[in-house]
Amino acid sequence: MESARDVVITGIGVLSPIGIGSAAFWASLIEGRSGVCSLGWFDQSDRPSPPGGLVPDFDPARYVRPRKALKVMSRDIQLAVAAADLACTEAGLAQGAPDPDRFGVVFGADMIAVELGELAGAYRACMVDGRFEFGRWGQRAMSDLFPLWMLKYLPNMPACHVGILHDARGPNNTLTMAEASSLAALAEAYEIIRRGQADVILAGGASSRIHPMVYVRNAGRQTSQRHADPAGACRPFDADRDGMVHGEGAAVFALESRQHAESRGAGGRVLARVLAGTCTFRPPHADGTVRGEAIRGAILTALAAARLGPSDLGHVNAHGLGTTLDDEREAEAIRETLGDVPVTAPKSYFGNLGAATGAVELAASVLGLGQGLIPPTRNYHRPDPRCPVRVVHGQAQAAERPTVLALNHAASGQAAAMVLAGPAPRT
Fold first, then answer.
1. What are the residue boundaries of the structural domains of the chain, listed by start?
2. How far is the C-alpha of 210 from the C-alpha of 58, rounded, in Å?
Protein backbone atom coordinates (compact mmCIF):
# COMPACT_ATOMS: atom_id res chain seq x y z
CA MET A 1 0.00 0.00 0.00
CA GLU A 2 1.32 3.43 -0.94
CA SER A 3 2.08 5.94 1.78
CA ALA A 4 1.13 9.60 1.72
CA ARG A 5 4.86 10.33 2.06
CA ASP A 6 5.86 8.29 -0.99
CA VAL A 7 8.27 10.43 -2.99
CA VAL A 8 7.72 10.79 -6.73
CA ILE A 9 9.39 12.61 -9.61
CA THR A 10 7.05 14.84 -11.60
CA GLY A 11 9.49 16.82 -13.73
CA ILE A 12 13.00 16.75 -15.17
CA GLY A 13 15.11 19.62 -16.45
CA VAL A 14 18.30 18.57 -18.21
CA LEU A 15 21.05 20.45 -20.04
CA SER A 16 23.80 18.29 -21.43
CA PRO A 17 26.32 18.01 -24.25
CA ILE A 18 23.79 15.78 -26.07
CA GLY A 19 20.88 18.17 -25.82
CA ILE A 20 18.82 20.62 -23.81
CA GLY A 21 15.48 19.30 -22.57
CA SER A 22 14.25 15.74 -22.08
CA ALA A 23 13.21 15.12 -25.70
CA ALA A 24 16.54 16.12 -27.25
CA PHE A 25 18.50 14.32 -24.53
CA TRP A 26 16.58 11.06 -24.97
CA ALA A 27 16.77 11.19 -28.76
CA SER A 28 20.56 11.46 -28.61
CA LEU A 29 20.78 8.49 -26.25
CA ILE A 30 18.65 6.27 -28.49
CA GLU A 31 20.38 7.39 -31.68
CA GLY A 32 23.85 7.04 -30.17
CA ARG A 33 24.93 10.65 -30.74
CA SER A 34 28.01 11.80 -28.81
CA GLY A 35 28.34 15.22 -27.23
CA VAL A 36 32.12 15.09 -26.87
CA CYS A 37 34.21 17.25 -29.19
CA SER A 38 37.69 18.74 -29.42
CA LEU A 39 37.84 21.85 -27.25
CA GLY A 40 40.20 23.65 -29.60
CA TRP A 41 42.23 25.22 -26.81
CA PHE A 42 45.63 24.78 -28.44
CA ASP A 43 44.88 25.16 -32.13
CA GLN A 44 47.77 27.62 -32.52
CA SER A 45 50.37 25.27 -31.08
CA ASP A 46 51.70 21.75 -31.48
CA ARG A 47 49.97 20.64 -28.30
CA PRO A 48 46.80 18.55 -28.96
CA SER A 49 43.56 19.96 -27.60
CA PRO A 50 41.75 17.74 -25.10
CA PRO A 51 38.28 16.32 -25.76
CA GLY A 52 35.35 17.62 -23.71
CA GLY A 53 31.58 17.67 -23.51
CA LEU A 54 30.08 21.15 -24.07
CA VAL A 55 26.39 22.08 -23.75
CA PRO A 56 25.53 23.32 -27.26
CA ASP A 57 23.47 26.42 -28.08
CA PHE A 58 22.94 27.40 -24.44
CA ASP A 59 21.56 30.94 -24.01
CA PRO A 60 21.29 31.67 -20.27
CA ALA A 61 19.28 34.84 -20.94
CA ARG A 62 16.33 32.61 -21.88
CA TYR A 63 16.12 31.29 -18.31
CA VAL A 64 17.59 33.91 -15.95
CA ARG A 65 15.16 36.46 -14.51
CA PRO A 66 15.93 39.33 -14.11
CA ARG A 67 18.65 39.33 -16.76
CA LYS A 68 20.87 41.63 -14.72
CA ALA A 69 21.40 38.68 -12.37
CA LEU A 70 23.67 37.18 -15.03
CA LYS A 71 26.41 39.51 -13.73
CA VAL A 72 26.70 37.43 -10.58
CA MET A 73 26.28 33.99 -12.15
CA SER A 74 29.09 31.69 -13.22
CA ARG A 75 28.32 29.16 -15.93
CA ASP A 76 27.62 26.53 -13.25
CA ILE A 77 24.91 28.77 -11.77
CA GLN A 78 23.45 29.57 -15.18
CA LEU A 79 23.15 25.87 -15.98
CA ALA A 80 21.51 25.19 -12.61
CA VAL A 81 18.94 27.97 -13.01
CA ALA A 82 18.05 26.79 -16.52
CA ALA A 83 17.65 23.15 -15.44
CA ALA A 84 15.43 24.14 -12.51
CA ASP A 85 13.27 26.24 -14.83
CA LEU A 86 12.83 23.30 -17.20
CA ALA A 87 11.98 20.95 -14.32
CA CYS A 88 9.32 23.28 -12.94
CA THR A 89 7.77 23.70 -16.39
CA GLU A 90 7.61 19.95 -16.98
CA ALA A 91 6.17 19.34 -13.50
CA GLY A 92 3.56 22.08 -13.90
CA LEU A 93 4.86 23.94 -10.85
CA ALA A 94 3.74 27.47 -11.58
CA GLN A 95 5.21 30.36 -9.60
CA GLY A 96 3.59 30.40 -6.17
CA ALA A 97 1.84 27.04 -6.65
CA PRO A 98 3.66 25.16 -3.87
CA ASP A 99 3.52 26.60 -0.36
CA PRO A 100 6.81 28.60 -0.35
CA ASP A 101 7.64 27.51 3.20
CA ARG A 102 7.35 23.84 2.17
CA PHE A 103 9.22 24.22 -1.11
CA GLY A 104 12.95 23.46 -0.94
CA VAL A 105 16.13 23.19 -2.99
CA VAL A 106 18.97 20.69 -2.56
CA PHE A 107 21.87 20.79 -5.00
CA GLY A 108 25.15 19.13 -5.73
CA ALA A 109 27.88 21.58 -6.72
CA ASP A 110 31.57 21.61 -7.49
CA MET A 111 34.28 23.96 -6.30
CA ILE A 112 33.54 26.45 -9.09
CA ALA A 113 36.61 27.58 -11.03
CA VAL A 114 37.03 31.34 -11.46
CA GLU A 115 37.22 32.72 -15.00
CA LEU A 116 40.89 33.52 -15.58
CA GLY A 117 40.16 36.93 -17.11
CA GLU A 118 38.54 38.11 -13.88
CA LEU A 119 41.69 37.47 -11.87
CA ALA A 120 44.31 38.52 -14.43
CA GLY A 121 44.41 42.19 -13.41
CA ALA A 122 44.53 41.35 -9.73
CA TYR A 123 47.45 38.97 -10.21
CA ARG A 124 49.37 41.46 -12.32
CA ALA A 125 48.97 44.07 -9.59
CA CYS A 126 50.81 41.73 -7.21
CA MET A 127 53.73 40.90 -9.49
CA VAL A 128 57.12 42.44 -8.71
CA ASP A 129 60.11 41.61 -10.89
CA GLY A 130 58.37 38.48 -12.16
CA ARG A 131 57.44 37.20 -8.68
CA PHE A 132 54.04 37.14 -6.97
CA GLU A 133 54.08 39.23 -3.75
CA PHE A 134 51.38 37.88 -1.44
CA GLY A 135 51.59 40.95 0.82
CA ARG A 136 50.20 43.12 -1.97
CA TRP A 137 46.93 41.18 -2.37
CA GLY A 138 44.85 43.00 0.25
CA GLN A 139 45.70 46.54 -0.83
CA ARG A 140 46.46 46.29 -4.55
CA ALA A 141 44.53 43.33 -5.94
CA MET A 142 41.07 43.85 -4.49
CA SER A 143 40.61 47.11 -6.38
CA ASP A 144 40.96 45.17 -9.65
CA LEU A 145 38.16 42.73 -8.82
CA PHE A 146 34.43 43.10 -9.45
CA PRO A 147 33.03 43.83 -5.94
CA LEU A 148 30.61 40.87 -6.06
CA TRP A 149 32.92 38.49 -7.90
CA MET A 150 32.96 35.88 -5.16
CA LEU A 151 29.17 35.48 -5.36
CA LYS A 152 29.69 33.99 -8.81
CA TYR A 153 31.84 31.17 -7.50
CA LEU A 154 30.57 30.05 -4.09
CA PRO A 155 29.30 26.44 -4.38
CA ASN A 156 26.08 27.23 -2.50
CA MET A 157 25.02 29.92 -5.00
CA PRO A 158 23.29 27.63 -7.56
CA ALA A 159 20.83 26.49 -4.89
CA CYS A 160 20.45 30.05 -3.60
CA HIS A 161 19.60 31.49 -7.02
CA VAL A 162 17.13 28.69 -7.73
CA GLY A 163 15.47 29.26 -4.35
CA ILE A 164 15.16 33.01 -4.97
CA LEU A 165 13.86 32.62 -8.51
CA HIS A 166 11.15 30.11 -7.53
CA ASP A 167 10.34 31.59 -4.11
CA ALA A 168 11.34 28.32 -2.44
CA ARG A 169 11.73 29.26 1.24
CA GLY A 170 11.95 25.76 2.67
CA PRO A 171 15.08 23.63 3.21
CA ASN A 172 17.98 24.84 1.07
CA ASN A 173 21.26 22.97 1.05
CA THR A 174 24.32 22.26 -1.09
CA LEU A 175 26.51 19.17 -1.09
CA THR A 176 30.02 19.37 -2.51
CA MET A 177 31.20 15.78 -2.92
CA ALA A 178 32.60 15.85 -6.46
CA GLU A 179 30.95 13.19 -8.66
CA ALA A 180 28.85 11.86 -5.76
CA SER A 181 27.26 15.27 -5.16
CA SER A 182 24.00 15.18 -7.08
CA LEU A 183 22.95 11.65 -6.13
CA ALA A 184 23.70 12.59 -2.52
CA ALA A 185 21.56 15.73 -2.97
CA LEU A 186 18.69 13.66 -4.36
CA ALA A 187 19.01 11.24 -1.43
CA GLU A 188 18.80 14.13 1.03
CA ALA A 189 15.82 15.64 -0.76
CA TYR A 190 14.07 12.28 -0.64
CA GLU A 191 14.58 12.01 3.13
CA ILE A 192 13.43 15.61 3.75
CA ILE A 193 10.11 14.90 2.04
CA ARG A 194 9.69 11.56 3.81
CA ARG A 195 10.26 13.30 7.15
CA GLY A 196 7.45 15.71 6.33
CA GLN A 197 9.66 18.81 6.29
CA ALA A 198 8.76 19.76 2.71
CA ASP A 199 6.20 18.93 0.06
CA VAL A 200 8.27 19.77 -3.01
CA ILE A 201 12.03 19.95 -3.56
CA LEU A 202 14.05 20.84 -6.63
CA ALA A 203 17.07 18.54 -6.42
CA GLY A 204 19.97 17.78 -8.69
CA GLY A 205 23.32 19.24 -9.65
CA ALA A 206 25.19 21.52 -12.02
CA SER A 207 28.80 21.82 -13.03
CA SER A 208 31.07 23.02 -15.80
CA ARG A 209 34.41 21.25 -15.84
CA ILE A 210 35.42 22.80 -19.15
CA HIS A 211 37.98 25.08 -17.57
CA PRO A 212 41.82 25.02 -17.63
CA MET A 213 42.01 25.07 -13.82
CA VAL A 214 39.87 21.92 -13.61
CA TYR A 215 42.28 20.14 -15.95
CA VAL A 216 45.23 21.28 -13.82
CA ARG A 217 43.48 20.27 -10.59
CA ASN A 218 42.78 16.80 -12.00
CA ALA A 219 46.20 16.34 -13.60
CA GLY A 220 46.87 13.33 -11.39
CA ARG A 221 43.80 11.47 -12.62
CA GLN A 222 43.74 9.31 -15.73
CA THR A 223 42.28 11.25 -18.68
CA SER A 224 41.73 10.00 -22.21
CA GLN A 225 44.45 10.74 -24.73
CA ARG A 226 42.22 10.08 -27.74
CA HIS A 227 42.49 13.67 -28.91
CA ALA A 228 41.99 12.69 -32.55
CA ASP A 229 38.76 10.81 -31.78
CA PRO A 230 36.86 12.86 -29.17
CA ALA A 231 33.52 11.09 -29.70
CA GLY A 232 35.22 7.75 -29.02
CA ALA A 233 37.30 8.93 -26.09
CA CYS A 234 35.13 7.88 -23.12
CA ARG A 235 34.87 4.07 -23.10
CA PRO A 236 33.40 2.77 -19.84
CA PHE A 237 34.22 -0.87 -19.11
CA ASP A 238 35.77 -1.36 -22.58
CA ALA A 239 39.11 -3.15 -22.72
CA ASP A 240 40.62 -0.21 -24.64
CA ARG A 241 39.55 2.55 -22.22
CA ASP A 242 42.31 5.02 -21.43
CA GLY A 243 40.77 7.58 -19.09
CA MET A 244 37.94 9.96 -18.39
CA VAL A 245 36.71 12.97 -20.35
CA HIS A 246 35.59 16.23 -18.74
CA GLY A 247 32.23 17.80 -19.53
CA GLU A 248 29.54 20.18 -18.31
CA GLY A 249 25.83 20.02 -17.67
CA ALA A 250 22.99 20.16 -15.18
CA ALA A 251 19.90 18.19 -14.27
CA VAL A 252 17.17 19.02 -11.78
CA PHE A 253 14.28 16.83 -10.65
CA ALA A 254 11.00 18.04 -9.19
CA LEU A 255 10.50 15.70 -6.21
CA GLU A 256 7.29 15.78 -4.21
CA SER A 257 5.21 13.65 -1.94
CA ARG A 258 2.63 11.61 -3.82
CA GLN A 259 -0.07 13.20 -1.67
CA HIS A 260 1.01 16.68 -2.76
CA ALA A 261 1.24 15.68 -6.43
CA GLU A 262 -2.25 14.23 -6.39
CA SER A 263 -3.73 17.14 -4.42
CA ARG A 264 -2.60 19.57 -7.12
CA GLY A 265 -3.85 17.32 -9.91
CA ALA A 266 -0.42 16.14 -10.99
CA GLY A 267 -0.81 12.46 -10.17
CA GLY A 268 -0.74 11.69 -13.87
CA ARG A 269 2.60 13.47 -14.26
CA VAL A 270 4.53 10.97 -12.14
CA LEU A 271 7.63 9.84 -14.03
CA ALA A 272 9.15 7.60 -11.36
CA ARG A 273 9.07 6.72 -7.69
CA VAL A 274 12.11 7.14 -5.44
CA LEU A 275 12.55 4.01 -3.33
CA ALA A 276 15.86 4.70 -1.60
CA GLY A 277 18.94 6.88 -1.57
CA THR A 278 22.16 6.33 0.35
CA CYS A 279 25.80 7.38 0.70
CA THR A 280 28.78 5.45 2.03
CA PHE A 281 32.44 6.27 2.55
CA ARG A 282 35.70 4.36 2.51
CA PRO A 283 39.11 6.05 2.40
CA PRO A 284 40.31 5.90 -1.21
CA HIS A 285 43.48 4.17 -2.34
CA ALA A 286 46.67 6.21 -2.17
CA ASP A 287 46.45 6.86 -5.92
CA GLY A 288 43.01 8.48 -5.51
CA THR A 289 41.03 5.59 -6.96
CA VAL A 290 37.87 4.24 -5.37
CA ARG A 291 37.72 1.23 -3.08
CA GLY A 292 35.33 -1.48 -4.15
CA GLU A 293 34.06 -1.69 -0.56
CA ALA A 294 32.54 1.78 -0.86
CA ILE A 295 30.57 0.84 -3.96
CA ARG A 296 29.47 -2.50 -2.54
CA GLY A 297 28.33 -0.77 0.64
CA ALA A 298 26.27 1.78 -1.30
CA ILE A 299 24.62 -0.95 -3.38
CA LEU A 300 23.72 -3.18 -0.46
CA THR A 301 22.50 -0.32 1.74
CA ALA A 302 20.32 1.10 -1.02
CA LEU A 303 18.81 -2.29 -1.88
CA ALA A 304 18.01 -2.97 1.77
CA ALA A 305 16.37 0.43 2.17
CA ALA A 306 14.30 -0.14 -0.98
CA ARG A 307 13.38 -3.66 0.21
CA LEU A 308 14.53 -5.15 -3.07
CA GLY A 309 16.80 -8.01 -4.00
CA PRO A 310 19.22 -8.19 -6.93
CA SER A 311 16.66 -10.05 -9.04
CA ASP A 312 14.21 -7.15 -8.65
CA LEU A 313 16.42 -4.71 -10.56
CA GLY A 314 15.85 -3.90 -14.21
CA HIS A 315 19.26 -2.33 -14.72
CA VAL A 316 22.17 -0.50 -13.13
CA ASN A 317 23.08 3.04 -14.21
CA ALA A 318 26.80 2.81 -13.54
CA HIS A 319 29.37 5.48 -12.76
CA GLY A 320 31.43 4.13 -15.67
CA LEU A 321 34.20 6.72 -15.47
CA GLY A 322 36.30 5.20 -18.24
CA THR A 323 39.49 4.89 -16.21
CA THR A 324 41.36 1.62 -15.90
CA LEU A 325 41.05 0.98 -12.15
CA ASP A 326 37.78 2.74 -11.30
CA ASP A 327 35.84 0.77 -13.89
CA GLU A 328 37.44 -2.49 -12.82
CA ARG A 329 36.53 -2.00 -9.17
CA GLU A 330 33.02 -0.80 -9.93
CA ALA A 331 32.36 -3.73 -12.26
CA GLU A 332 33.60 -6.21 -9.68
CA ALA A 333 31.36 -4.65 -7.02
CA ILE A 334 28.31 -4.79 -9.30
CA ARG A 335 28.95 -8.42 -10.28
CA GLU A 336 29.60 -9.49 -6.69
CA THR A 337 26.43 -7.91 -5.28
CA LEU A 338 23.98 -7.99 -8.19
CA GLY A 339 25.09 -10.77 -10.51
CA ASP A 340 24.41 -10.50 -14.24
CA VAL A 341 22.19 -7.39 -14.12
CA PRO A 342 22.17 -5.22 -17.29
CA VAL A 343 24.44 -2.17 -16.98
CA THR A 344 24.44 1.14 -18.83
CA ALA A 345 27.08 3.89 -18.58
CA PRO A 346 25.86 7.31 -19.83
CA LYS A 347 29.24 9.05 -19.42
CA SER A 348 30.14 7.45 -22.74
CA TYR A 349 27.97 10.14 -24.39
CA PHE A 350 29.17 13.28 -22.60
CA GLY A 351 32.00 12.57 -20.19
CA ASN A 352 32.42 13.29 -16.51
CA LEU A 353 30.15 16.18 -15.51
CA GLY A 354 31.47 16.45 -11.96
CA ALA A 355 28.80 17.36 -9.43
CA ALA A 356 26.14 17.20 -12.16
CA THR A 357 27.08 13.78 -13.42
CA GLY A 358 24.77 11.68 -11.23
CA ALA A 359 21.68 13.77 -11.92
CA VAL A 360 22.24 13.93 -15.69
CA GLU A 361 22.91 10.20 -15.82
CA LEU A 362 19.85 9.46 -13.71
CA ALA A 363 17.72 11.44 -16.16
CA ALA A 364 18.63 8.83 -18.78
CA SER A 365 17.22 6.03 -16.64
CA VAL A 366 14.09 7.93 -15.59
CA LEU A 367 13.27 8.64 -19.22
CA GLY A 368 14.04 5.01 -20.01
CA LEU A 369 11.56 3.84 -17.36
CA GLY A 370 8.84 5.72 -19.22
CA GLN A 371 9.75 3.93 -22.45
CA GLY A 372 10.41 0.50 -20.96
CA LEU A 373 13.98 0.72 -22.31
CA ILE A 374 17.55 0.67 -21.04
CA PRO A 375 19.60 3.27 -22.94
CA PRO A 376 22.73 1.82 -24.55
CA THR A 377 26.37 2.56 -23.74
CA ARG A 378 28.52 4.18 -26.46
CA ASN A 379 32.04 3.11 -27.36
CA TYR A 380 31.75 -0.39 -25.94
CA HIS A 381 33.48 -2.58 -28.51
CA ARG A 382 35.77 -5.02 -26.73
CA PRO A 383 34.71 -6.59 -23.40
CA ASP A 384 37.29 -6.55 -20.65
CA PRO A 385 37.43 -9.74 -18.54
CA ARG A 386 38.47 -7.54 -15.60
CA CYS A 387 35.09 -5.77 -15.89
CA PRO A 388 32.67 -8.72 -15.61
CA VAL A 389 29.39 -6.86 -16.19
CA ARG A 390 26.74 -7.18 -18.90
CA VAL A 391 26.99 -3.82 -20.66
CA VAL A 392 23.98 -2.76 -22.73
CA HIS A 393 25.42 -1.46 -26.00
CA GLY A 394 24.68 -1.08 -29.68
CA GLN A 395 21.00 -0.31 -29.19
CA ALA A 396 18.50 0.17 -26.39
CA GLN A 397 17.39 -2.97 -24.62
CA ALA A 398 13.89 -3.75 -23.37
CA ALA A 399 13.81 -3.58 -19.58
CA GLU A 400 12.48 -6.71 -17.91
CA ARG A 401 11.65 -4.82 -14.72
CA PRO A 402 10.79 -1.13 -14.19
CA THR A 403 13.51 -0.50 -11.60
CA VAL A 404 16.97 1.05 -11.66
CA LEU A 405 19.89 1.40 -9.26
CA ALA A 406 22.10 4.40 -10.04
CA LEU A 407 25.71 4.60 -8.83
CA ASN A 408 28.32 7.34 -8.46
CA HIS A 409 31.56 7.63 -6.57
CA ALA A 410 34.22 10.25 -5.96
CA ALA A 411 38.00 10.13 -5.66
CA SER A 412 37.62 11.41 -2.10
CA GLY A 413 36.01 8.10 -1.08
CA GLN A 414 32.26 8.73 -1.15
CA ALA A 415 29.89 6.44 -3.01
CA ALA A 416 26.21 7.20 -3.60
CA ALA A 417 23.33 5.07 -4.80
CA MET A 418 19.67 5.68 -5.68
CA VAL A 419 16.92 3.17 -6.36
CA LEU A 420 13.98 4.24 -8.52
CA ALA A 421 10.93 2.48 -9.92
CA GLY A 422 8.45 3.33 -12.61
CA PRO A 423 5.20 5.12 -11.71
CA ALA A 424 2.69 2.99 -9.83
CA PRO A 425 -1.07 3.29 -10.31
CA ARG A 426 -2.61 6.01 -8.18
CA THR A 427 -4.68 4.95 -5.18
1. 7-113+153-421, 116-146
2. 14
Residue 49 DSSP symbol: P
Instruction: Tell me which CATH homologous superfamily contains domain 7-113+153-421.
Output: Thiolase/Chalcone synthase (3.40.47.10)
Contact 350, 36 (CB under 8 A): yes
Cα–Cα nearest to 13, from 1, 5, 23: 23
CA distance 269 to 260: 12
Phi, psi of 342 (to 5 degrees): -65, 145
Instruction: Please give the model's pTM, rounded to 2 decimal places.
Output: 0.95
Q: Concatenated DSSP letters for 216-273?
A: HHTTTS-B---TT-GGG---TTBTT---B-EEEEEEEEEEEEHHHHHHTT-GGG--EE
What are the residues whose beta carbons fall under 8 Å from the beta carbon of 169, sequence distance 6 or more? 100, 101, 103, 163
Q: For 133-167, write each residue's pLDDT tens digit.
A: 998 888 777 777 887 888 999 999 999 999 999 99
Which residue in 180, 19, 17, 192 sits closest to 103, CA to CA? 192
Q: How far apart are the C-alpha atoms of 364 and 360, rounded to whole Å?
A: 7
